[in-house]
Amino acid sequence: MPRRNLLVIVAVKAVCLLCYQKAERGRFGRVLVDAMEQIHRRYVEPIAPAELFAGAMEGMVARLNDPYSAYIDPEQFRRFNEAIGARFGGVGIQVSLDPKTGQLVVISPLAGTPAHGGRYTVPCPKGGLGRTTRPRLARSRQ
User: Fold this and answer.
1) Inter-residue contact 15 to 23 (CB < 8 Å)
2) CA–CA separation, 59 vs 62, rounded Å?
3) Which residues, including other chains, have CB under 8 Å from residue 61's CB and lie 6 or more apart?
4) Which of the residues 12, 46, 58, 81 has the least number of beta carbons within 10 Å of its own beta carbon?
5) Which residues, 6+ apart, have CB-to-CB distance to 141 below 8 Å?
């Protein structure tokens, strides 16, 4: 390897190391890490660092006083992306759960779909749906 390449690699590593140390010592990040460490070491009940971090994030977002902002933990984020990335097939109806009967009720067919202008029934599994349409709709996506 030419000497010039070796010098470039060493220089890049030095800059990376300096940047890493600078980022790690950020004022607010360091305060957050110190607080989490103090709580972890001194609090009377054991608490997972992930729970502390989630609480800190939720508190920061709540401080914004913005009803359209929220902290979404990684698992919720995964489920959200899964839900919005899903492909839906079917007849094209908007449904709701009738609170009195527990049956699915067709609110309206969606324009340009097979259900628009047609007749249809919505089969309900044995025992009804329970309190939400989610289990039925989740089964329809499979």
Assistant:
1) no
2) 5
3) 69, 70, 71
4) 46
5) 86, 87, 88
